[in-house]
Amino acid sequence: MKFKQGKEKNRQVNLDVDLDEKDLEPYYKIGYKKLVKKITIPGFRKGKAPYHIIESQYGKETILSEAIDNILSDKTSEVIKESEIESYMPPKIELKNFNPIKFTVILPLQPKIKLGEINKIKLKKIENPDFEILIDEQINNLQKQFTNWIPSSGKSQSGELISINIKIEIDGENVLDQQNTDIMLEEQNDEFAPGLIKNLIGLKEGDSKNINLKISKSHPSQEMADKKAKFDITVNSIKKPDSPKLDANFAKMVSNNEIKTMNTLRKKIKTSVEENHKQQSEFEYQNNAIAELIKISDIELPPIMIERETQNEIEQLENLAKRFKMSLEDYLTQNNQNLDETKENIEVETLQKLNRTFTLLEVCKQNNIIPTEQELSEAEKNLKTQQSNNKNSPKLSKEGIQMEAEYRLKLEKASKYLYQETLKNIV
Q1: CA–CA gap between residue 184 and residue 196 (Å, rounded)
Q2: Mapped to the 3 state alphabet, what secondary structure does the chain carry?
Q3: For residue 301, what are the CA distances in angstroms to 117, 208, 311, 314, 356?
Q4: Share of the chain above pLDDT 90, in %
Q5: CA distance linking residue 361 with residue 338, whole number of Å
Protein backbone atom coordinates (compact mmCIF):
# COMPACT_ATOMS: atom_id res chain seq x y z
CA MET A 1 0.00 0.00 0.00
CA LYS A 2 1.25 3.43 -0.92
CA PHE A 3 -0.20 6.76 0.07
CA LYS A 4 0.60 10.38 -0.57
CA GLN A 5 -0.26 12.98 2.04
CA GLY A 6 -1.48 16.33 0.75
CA LYS A 7 -1.06 19.70 2.39
CA GLU A 8 -3.56 20.90 4.94
CA LYS A 9 -6.27 23.00 3.31
CA ASN A 10 -9.39 24.36 5.02
CA ARG A 11 -8.65 22.22 8.09
CA GLN A 12 -8.63 19.04 5.99
CA VAL A 13 -5.86 16.72 4.79
CA ASN A 14 -6.14 14.35 1.83
CA LEU A 15 -4.45 10.96 1.79
CA ASP A 16 -4.30 9.50 -1.74
CA VAL A 17 -4.03 5.73 -1.46
CA ASP A 18 -2.90 3.17 -4.07
CA LEU A 19 -3.34 -0.56 -3.39
CA ASP A 20 -1.45 -3.36 -5.12
CA GLU A 21 -2.37 -7.01 -5.61
CA LYS A 22 -0.62 -8.03 -2.42
CA ASP A 23 -2.85 -5.71 -0.40
CA LEU A 24 -5.94 -7.26 -1.96
CA GLU A 25 -5.15 -10.97 -1.58
CA PRO A 26 -7.04 -11.50 1.73
CA TYR A 27 -10.16 -9.85 0.33
CA TYR A 28 -10.83 -12.31 -2.50
CA LYS A 29 -11.88 -14.84 0.13
CA ILE A 30 -14.14 -12.27 1.81
CA GLY A 31 -15.68 -11.29 -1.53
CA TYR A 32 -16.18 -14.93 -2.48
CA LYS A 33 -18.05 -15.69 0.78
CA LYS A 34 -20.40 -12.77 0.16
CA LEU A 35 -20.97 -13.49 -3.54
CA VAL A 36 -21.51 -17.25 -3.24
CA LYS A 37 -24.47 -16.67 -0.92
CA LYS A 38 -26.22 -14.48 -3.52
CA ILE A 39 -25.97 -16.67 -6.61
CA THR A 40 -27.07 -20.11 -7.77
CA ILE A 41 -24.66 -22.35 -9.74
CA PRO A 42 -26.11 -25.44 -11.45
CA GLY A 43 -24.86 -28.63 -9.79
CA PHE A 44 -24.14 -26.96 -6.45
CA ARG A 45 -26.24 -26.10 -3.46
CA LYS A 46 -26.59 -22.35 -2.89
CA GLY A 47 -23.51 -21.08 -1.08
CA LYS A 48 -21.49 -24.25 -1.74
CA ALA A 49 -19.92 -23.60 -5.17
CA PRO A 50 -16.08 -23.63 -4.91
CA TYR A 51 -13.99 -20.52 -5.45
CA HIS A 52 -12.55 -21.50 -8.83
CA ILE A 53 -16.05 -22.06 -10.27
CA ILE A 54 -17.20 -18.63 -9.09
CA GLU A 55 -14.03 -17.01 -10.42
CA SER A 56 -14.38 -18.69 -13.83
CA GLN A 57 -17.98 -17.55 -14.24
CA TYR A 58 -17.90 -14.09 -12.63
CA GLY A 59 -14.25 -13.00 -12.69
CA LYS A 60 -11.90 -11.73 -9.98
CA GLU A 61 -13.11 -8.15 -10.24
CA THR A 62 -16.70 -9.13 -9.40
CA ILE A 63 -15.49 -11.14 -6.43
CA LEU A 64 -13.36 -8.25 -5.22
CA SER A 65 -16.19 -5.75 -5.68
CA GLU A 66 -18.16 -7.65 -3.02
CA ALA A 67 -15.40 -6.85 -0.53
CA ILE A 68 -14.86 -3.21 -1.48
CA ASP A 69 -16.42 -1.88 1.74
CA ASN A 70 -14.11 -4.10 3.81
CA ILE A 71 -11.11 -2.99 1.78
CA LEU A 72 -11.83 0.70 2.12
CA SER A 73 -12.62 0.42 5.83
CA ASP A 74 -9.53 -1.63 6.73
CA LYS A 75 -7.06 0.28 4.56
CA THR A 76 -8.42 3.63 5.70
CA SER A 77 -7.74 2.68 9.32
CA GLU A 78 -4.23 1.56 8.38
CA VAL A 79 -3.34 4.65 6.40
CA ILE A 80 -4.64 7.01 9.13
CA LYS A 81 -2.53 5.15 11.68
CA GLU A 82 0.56 5.39 9.47
CA SER A 83 0.00 9.08 8.76
CA GLU A 84 -0.21 9.79 12.52
CA ILE A 85 -2.80 12.48 11.78
CA GLU A 86 -5.48 12.95 14.43
CA SER A 87 -8.84 13.13 12.68
CA TYR A 88 -11.45 15.24 14.52
CA MET A 89 -14.35 13.17 13.16
CA PRO A 90 -14.80 10.13 10.87
CA PRO A 91 -13.10 10.66 7.51
CA LYS A 92 -14.72 10.86 4.11
CA ILE A 93 -13.66 8.17 1.63
CA GLU A 94 -13.80 8.72 -2.12
CA LEU A 95 -13.15 5.75 -4.45
CA LYS A 96 -11.25 7.09 -7.48
CA ASN A 97 -10.54 3.90 -9.40
CA PHE A 98 -11.40 0.21 -9.01
CA ASN A 99 -8.76 -1.54 -11.13
CA PRO A 100 -6.26 -0.86 -9.69
CA ILE A 101 -7.92 0.39 -6.51
CA LYS A 102 -7.19 4.02 -5.78
CA PHE A 103 -9.05 6.06 -3.20
CA THR A 104 -8.75 9.29 -1.24
CA VAL A 105 -9.20 9.60 2.51
CA ILE A 106 -10.25 13.12 3.50
CA LEU A 107 -9.39 13.79 7.15
CA PRO A 108 -11.23 16.63 8.90
CA LEU A 109 -9.02 18.30 11.49
CA GLN A 110 -10.10 20.03 14.68
CA PRO A 111 -11.64 23.46 13.98
CA LYS A 112 -9.21 26.30 14.47
CA ILE A 113 -10.51 29.35 16.32
CA LYS A 114 -8.66 32.60 16.90
CA LEU A 115 -10.86 34.71 19.13
CA GLY A 116 -11.10 38.45 18.73
CA GLU A 117 -10.66 40.73 21.74
CA ILE A 118 -13.79 40.52 23.86
CA ASN A 119 -13.14 43.88 25.52
CA LYS A 120 -13.46 45.57 22.12
CA ILE A 121 -17.04 44.37 21.63
CA LYS A 122 -19.59 47.18 21.88
CA LEU A 123 -23.30 46.44 22.23
CA LYS A 124 -26.22 48.73 21.53
CA LYS A 125 -28.37 49.44 24.57
CA ILE A 126 -31.79 47.80 24.61
CA GLU A 127 -34.33 50.42 25.63
CA ASN A 128 -37.11 49.64 28.08
CA PRO A 129 -40.60 49.43 26.61
CA ASP A 130 -43.55 51.37 27.96
CA PHE A 131 -44.43 49.01 30.81
CA GLU A 132 -47.83 50.63 31.38
CA ILE A 133 -48.87 49.72 27.83
CA LEU A 134 -47.72 46.12 28.37
CA ILE A 135 -49.64 45.95 31.64
CA ASP A 136 -52.80 47.21 29.90
CA GLU A 137 -52.36 44.61 27.16
CA GLN A 138 -52.12 41.79 29.68
CA ILE A 139 -55.18 43.01 31.56
CA ASN A 140 -57.11 43.27 28.28
CA ASN A 141 -56.10 39.70 27.42
CA LEU A 142 -57.30 38.52 30.83
CA GLN A 143 -60.55 40.37 30.27
CA LYS A 144 -61.03 38.57 26.94
CA GLN A 145 -60.42 35.20 28.59
CA PHE A 146 -63.25 35.82 31.03
CA THR A 147 -65.61 37.37 28.49
CA ASN A 148 -68.99 35.72 27.87
CA TRP A 149 -70.60 35.78 24.43
CA ILE A 150 -74.30 36.55 24.20
CA PRO A 151 -76.58 36.43 21.13
CA SER A 152 -77.04 39.65 19.16
CA SER A 153 -80.05 40.32 16.93
CA GLY A 154 -78.60 43.47 15.33
CA LYS A 155 -76.07 43.99 12.59
CA SER A 156 -72.63 42.52 13.18
CA GLN A 157 -69.99 44.92 14.43
CA SER A 158 -66.21 44.92 14.78
CA GLY A 159 -65.13 42.82 17.78
CA GLU A 160 -68.14 40.48 17.60
CA LEU A 161 -68.20 36.75 16.89
CA ILE A 162 -69.98 35.65 13.72
CA SER A 163 -70.85 32.08 12.73
CA ILE A 164 -71.19 31.47 8.97
CA ASN A 165 -71.57 28.79 6.33
CA ILE A 166 -68.97 29.48 3.64
CA LYS A 167 -68.42 28.14 0.13
CA ILE A 168 -65.49 29.19 -2.04
CA GLU A 169 -65.16 28.69 -5.78
CA ILE A 170 -62.04 29.25 -7.85
CA ASP A 171 -62.34 29.10 -11.65
CA GLY A 172 -65.75 27.47 -11.26
CA GLU A 173 -64.45 24.70 -8.99
CA ASN A 174 -65.61 24.32 -5.38
CA VAL A 175 -62.46 24.38 -3.17
CA LEU A 176 -64.07 24.92 0.24
CA ASP A 177 -67.45 24.13 1.81
CA GLN A 178 -67.60 24.64 5.58
CA GLN A 179 -70.53 24.88 7.96
CA ASN A 180 -70.73 26.83 11.24
CA THR A 181 -67.36 28.54 10.90
CA ASP A 182 -66.72 31.00 13.73
CA ILE A 183 -64.85 34.20 12.84
CA MET A 184 -63.88 37.01 15.18
CA LEU A 185 -64.53 40.29 13.41
CA GLU A 186 -61.11 41.77 13.98
CA GLU A 187 -58.68 43.24 11.47
CA GLN A 188 -55.97 40.74 12.37
CA ASN A 189 -58.22 37.91 11.11
CA ASP A 190 -58.35 39.40 7.61
CA GLU A 191 -55.19 37.62 6.41
CA PHE A 192 -57.06 34.71 4.76
CA ALA A 193 -58.67 36.96 2.14
CA PRO A 194 -58.12 40.70 2.57
CA GLY A 195 -61.49 42.44 2.68
CA LEU A 196 -63.45 39.48 4.09
CA ILE A 197 -63.87 40.96 7.58
CA LYS A 198 -65.03 44.29 6.14
CA ASN A 199 -67.69 42.47 4.09
CA LEU A 200 -68.92 40.49 7.11
CA ILE A 201 -69.43 43.60 9.25
CA GLY A 202 -72.99 44.90 8.96
CA LEU A 203 -74.65 41.54 8.22
CA LYS A 204 -77.51 40.13 10.34
CA GLU A 205 -78.48 36.60 11.30
CA GLY A 206 -79.95 34.84 8.24
CA ASP A 207 -78.31 37.20 5.72
CA SER A 208 -76.56 35.78 2.65
CA LYS A 209 -73.90 37.48 0.58
CA ASN A 210 -71.85 36.73 -2.54
CA ILE A 211 -68.50 38.49 -2.81
CA ASN A 212 -65.38 38.26 -4.95
CA LEU A 213 -62.04 38.44 -3.17
CA LYS A 214 -58.44 37.39 -3.73
CA ILE A 215 -57.00 34.71 -1.44
CA SER A 216 -53.83 35.73 0.40
CA LYS A 217 -50.46 34.86 -1.17
CA SER A 218 -49.40 33.27 2.13
CA HIS A 219 -52.23 30.71 2.14
CA PRO A 220 -50.72 27.20 2.65
CA SER A 221 -52.77 25.64 -0.16
CA GLN A 222 -51.26 26.18 -3.61
CA GLU A 223 -54.60 25.72 -5.33
CA MET A 224 -55.96 28.68 -3.35
CA ALA A 225 -53.01 30.99 -2.68
CA ASP A 226 -53.12 34.31 -4.58
CA LYS A 227 -56.21 33.22 -6.56
CA LYS A 228 -59.37 35.20 -7.30
CA ALA A 229 -62.29 33.49 -5.58
CA LYS A 230 -66.07 33.69 -5.29
CA PHE A 231 -67.38 33.56 -1.72
CA ASP A 232 -70.93 32.40 -0.91
CA ILE A 233 -71.69 33.29 2.72
CA THR A 234 -74.70 32.69 4.97
CA VAL A 235 -74.82 34.07 8.53
CA ASN A 236 -75.96 31.56 11.17
CA SER A 237 -75.56 33.66 14.29
CA ILE A 238 -73.91 36.74 15.79
CA LYS A 239 -72.64 37.06 19.33
CA LYS A 240 -71.41 40.15 21.12
CA PRO A 241 -68.95 40.23 24.01
CA ASP A 242 -70.13 40.63 27.57
CA SER A 243 -66.87 41.59 29.23
CA PRO A 244 -66.39 41.78 33.01
CA LYS A 245 -65.75 45.20 34.53
CA LEU A 246 -62.18 45.95 35.54
CA ASP A 247 -62.82 46.23 39.26
CA ALA A 248 -62.05 44.43 42.50
CA ASN A 249 -64.32 41.51 41.55
CA PHE A 250 -62.32 41.08 38.33
CA ALA A 251 -59.03 41.05 40.27
CA LYS A 252 -60.40 38.35 42.57
CA MET A 253 -61.78 36.32 39.65
CA VAL A 254 -58.55 36.18 37.63
CA SER A 255 -56.39 35.44 40.69
CA ASN A 256 -58.61 32.84 42.33
CA ASN A 257 -59.31 35.29 45.19
CA GLU A 258 -55.60 35.80 45.93
CA ILE A 259 -55.66 39.46 44.79
CA LYS A 260 -58.28 41.83 46.18
CA THR A 261 -57.84 45.06 44.20
CA MET A 262 -57.05 46.19 40.63
CA ASN A 263 -54.13 48.22 41.96
CA THR A 264 -52.53 45.10 43.45
CA LEU A 265 -53.22 43.18 40.23
CA ARG A 266 -51.45 45.84 38.17
CA LYS A 267 -48.45 45.77 40.53
CA LYS A 268 -48.17 41.99 40.22
CA ILE A 269 -48.41 42.14 36.44
CA LYS A 270 -45.83 44.93 36.38
CA THR A 271 -43.37 42.80 38.35
CA SER A 272 -43.89 39.93 35.91
CA VAL A 273 -43.58 42.16 32.82
CA GLU A 274 -40.39 43.79 34.10
CA GLU A 275 -38.83 40.42 34.96
CA ASN A 276 -39.70 39.05 31.51
CA HIS A 277 -38.14 42.09 29.86
CA LYS A 278 -35.00 41.71 31.96
CA GLN A 279 -34.65 38.05 30.93
CA GLN A 280 -35.34 38.79 27.26
CA SER A 281 -32.84 41.65 27.28
CA GLU A 282 -30.15 39.47 28.85
CA PHE A 283 -30.81 36.77 26.24
CA GLU A 284 -30.62 39.35 23.43
CA TYR A 285 -27.42 40.88 24.83
CA GLN A 286 -25.87 37.40 24.96
CA ASN A 287 -26.79 36.67 21.34
CA ASN A 288 -25.53 40.07 20.20
CA ALA A 289 -22.25 39.60 22.07
CA ILE A 290 -21.74 36.18 20.47
CA ALA A 291 -22.55 37.55 17.01
CA GLU A 292 -20.06 40.41 17.46
CA LEU A 293 -17.36 38.06 18.73
CA ILE A 294 -17.83 35.80 15.70
CA LYS A 295 -17.42 38.84 13.43
CA ILE A 296 -14.01 39.72 14.89
CA SER A 297 -12.75 36.13 15.22
CA ASP A 298 -11.02 33.87 12.68
CA ILE A 299 -12.92 30.59 12.43
CA GLU A 300 -11.71 27.68 10.29
CA LEU A 301 -14.04 24.68 10.01
CA PRO A 302 -13.48 21.60 7.84
CA PRO A 303 -15.99 21.61 4.94
CA ILE A 304 -16.86 17.96 5.68
CA MET A 305 -18.22 19.02 9.06
CA ILE A 306 -20.50 21.64 7.47
CA GLU A 307 -21.57 19.17 4.78
CA ARG A 308 -22.51 16.44 7.28
CA GLU A 309 -24.32 18.74 9.68
CA THR A 310 -26.28 20.18 6.75
CA GLN A 311 -27.21 16.69 5.56
CA ASN A 312 -28.35 15.74 9.08
CA GLU A 313 -30.71 18.72 9.14
CA ILE A 314 -32.09 17.81 5.70
CA GLU A 315 -32.64 14.20 6.81
CA GLN A 316 -34.58 15.42 9.86
CA LEU A 317 -36.78 17.45 7.53
CA GLU A 318 -37.25 14.40 5.29
CA ASN A 319 -38.32 12.32 8.31
CA LEU A 320 -40.85 15.02 9.21
CA ALA A 321 -42.24 14.87 5.66
CA LYS A 322 -42.50 11.06 5.90
CA ARG A 323 -44.77 11.42 8.94
CA PHE A 324 -47.23 13.12 6.59
CA LYS A 325 -46.56 10.42 3.94
CA MET A 326 -45.02 12.99 1.62
CA SER A 327 -41.74 13.53 -0.17
CA LEU A 328 -39.62 16.41 1.09
CA GLU A 329 -40.26 18.38 -2.10
CA ASP A 330 -44.05 17.93 -1.85
CA TYR A 331 -44.00 18.81 1.85
CA LEU A 332 -42.08 22.04 1.17
CA THR A 333 -44.30 22.92 -1.80
CA GLN A 334 -47.40 22.61 0.36
CA ASN A 335 -45.81 25.05 2.77
CA ASN A 336 -44.90 27.48 -0.02
CA GLN A 337 -41.21 26.64 0.19
CA ASN A 338 -38.67 25.77 -2.49
CA LEU A 339 -36.41 22.71 -2.13
CA ASP A 340 -33.23 24.35 -3.46
CA GLU A 341 -33.75 27.51 -1.42
CA THR A 342 -34.50 25.45 1.67
CA LYS A 343 -31.26 23.51 1.29
CA GLU A 344 -29.30 26.74 0.83
CA ASN A 345 -30.93 28.23 3.93
CA ILE A 346 -30.15 25.10 5.95
CA GLU A 347 -26.49 25.28 4.91
CA VAL A 348 -26.28 28.95 5.94
CA GLU A 349 -27.98 28.25 9.28
CA THR A 350 -25.74 25.22 9.86
CA LEU A 351 -22.61 27.31 9.34
CA GLN A 352 -23.93 29.97 11.72
CA LYS A 353 -24.69 27.32 14.35
CA LEU A 354 -21.24 25.73 14.03
CA ASN A 355 -19.50 29.11 14.20
CA ARG A 356 -21.45 29.90 17.35
CA THR A 357 -20.76 26.53 18.96
CA PHE A 358 -17.00 26.46 18.38
CA THR A 359 -16.60 30.12 19.30
CA LEU A 360 -18.27 29.50 22.66
CA LEU A 361 -16.25 26.33 23.26
CA GLU A 362 -13.08 28.32 22.60
CA VAL A 363 -14.26 30.96 25.10
CA CYS A 364 -14.54 28.15 27.66
CA LYS A 365 -11.08 26.83 26.78
CA GLN A 366 -9.31 30.19 26.97
CA ASN A 367 -11.04 31.29 30.17
CA ASN A 368 -10.99 27.96 31.99
CA ILE A 369 -14.78 27.76 32.17
CA ILE A 370 -15.64 24.31 33.51
CA PRO A 371 -19.05 23.09 34.79
CA THR A 372 -19.09 22.02 38.43
CA GLU A 373 -19.96 18.48 39.48
CA GLN A 374 -23.25 19.74 40.91
CA GLU A 375 -24.14 21.52 37.66
CA LEU A 376 -23.31 18.42 35.64
CA SER A 377 -25.37 16.19 37.91
CA GLU A 378 -28.40 18.47 37.63
CA ALA A 379 -28.03 18.80 33.85
CA GLU A 380 -27.78 15.03 33.42
CA LYS A 381 -30.91 14.57 35.54
CA ASN A 382 -32.81 17.06 33.37
CA LEU A 383 -31.67 15.33 30.18
CA LYS A 384 -32.85 11.95 31.43
CA THR A 385 -36.25 13.47 32.25
CA GLN A 386 -36.47 15.02 28.78
CA GLN A 387 -35.62 11.66 27.20
CA SER A 388 -38.31 9.82 29.12
CA ASN A 389 -40.94 12.48 28.34
CA ASN A 390 -40.15 12.70 24.62
CA LYS A 391 -40.61 9.39 22.83
CA ASN A 392 -39.32 10.82 19.53
CA SER A 393 -36.01 12.05 20.93
CA PRO A 394 -32.92 9.88 20.28
CA LYS A 395 -32.02 7.69 23.24
CA LEU A 396 -28.59 8.51 24.60
CA SER A 397 -26.33 6.16 26.52
CA LYS A 398 -25.11 7.06 30.00
CA GLU A 399 -21.87 8.37 28.49
CA GLY A 400 -23.84 10.20 25.78
CA ILE A 401 -25.97 11.96 28.41
CA GLN A 402 -22.85 13.02 30.32
CA MET A 403 -21.23 14.42 27.17
CA GLU A 404 -24.38 16.23 26.06
CA ALA A 405 -24.89 17.71 29.54
CA GLU A 406 -21.30 19.01 29.65
CA TYR A 407 -21.60 20.39 26.10
CA ARG A 408 -24.81 22.31 26.87
CA LEU A 409 -23.46 23.67 30.13
CA LYS A 410 -20.30 24.95 28.46
CA LEU A 411 -22.31 26.82 25.83
CA GLU A 412 -24.58 28.27 28.50
CA LYS A 413 -21.74 29.33 30.81
CA ALA A 414 -19.72 30.82 27.95
CA SER A 415 -22.76 32.86 26.84
CA LYS A 416 -23.22 34.23 30.36
CA TYR A 417 -19.50 34.96 30.62
CA LEU A 418 -19.63 37.02 27.42
CA TYR A 419 -22.69 38.85 28.71
CA GLN A 420 -20.91 39.83 31.93
CA GLU A 421 -17.71 40.83 30.13
CA THR A 422 -19.51 43.05 27.61
CA LEU A 423 -21.97 44.76 30.01
CA LYS A 424 -19.54 47.61 30.54
CA ASN A 425 -19.40 48.20 26.77
CA ILE A 426 -23.11 48.80 26.25
CA VAL A 427 -23.60 52.14 24.50
Answers
A1: 11
A2: CEEEECCCECCEEEEEEECCHHHHHHHHHHHHHHHHCCCCCCCCCCCCCCHHHHHHHHCHHHHHHCCHHHHHHHHHHHHHHHHCCCCCCCCEEEEEECCCCEEEEEEECCCEEECCCHHHCCECCCCCCCHHHHHHHHHHHHHHHCCEEEECCCCCCCCCEEEEEEEEEECCEEEEEEEEEEEECCHHHCCCCCCHHHHHCCCCCCCEEEEEEECCCCCCCCCCCCCEEEEEEEEEEEEEEECCCCCHHHHHHHCCCCCCCHHHHHHHHHHHHHHHHHHHHHHHHHHHHHHHHHHCCEEECCHHHHHHHHHHHHHHHHHHHHHCCCCHHHHHHHCCCCHHHHHHHHHHHHHHHHHHHHHHHHHHHHCCCCCCHHHHHHHHHHHHHHHHHCCCCCCCCHHHHHHHHHHHHHHHHHHHHHHHHHHHHEC
A3: 20, 64, 16, 20, 12
A4: 85
A5: 34
Residue 245 φ/ψ, nearest 5 degrees: -70, 145
Q: In whole angstroms, what is the distance from residue 146 CA to residue 134 CA?
A: 19
Backbone torsions φ then ψ of 21, nearest 5 degrees: -60, -35
Phi, psi dihedral angles at 8 (to 5 degrees): -65, 135
- Return the pLDDT at 394: 73
- Low-confidence stretches of the chain (pLDDT beneath 50): none
Q: What confidence score (pLDDT) does residue 117 get? A: 95
In tens, the pLDDT along 129-181 reads 999 999 999 999 999 999 999 999 999 999 999 999 999 999 999 999 999 99
Q: How far is CA 233 from the centre of its chain?
A: 40
pTM of the model as a whole: 0.80
- Per-residue model confidence (pLDDT) at position 337: 84
| pLDDT given at position 189 | 87
Mean of per-residue pLDDT scores for the chain: 94
Q: Which among 279, 240, 255, 239 is positioned nearest to 139, based on CA atoms?
A: 255
Longest Cα–Cα distance of the chain, Å, equals: 97
Task: Name every residue whose Cβ is closer than 8 Å to that of residue 395 and which is 6 or more positions away in sequence.
Answer: 387
Span 61-82, pLDDT tens digits: 999 999 999 999 999 999 999 9
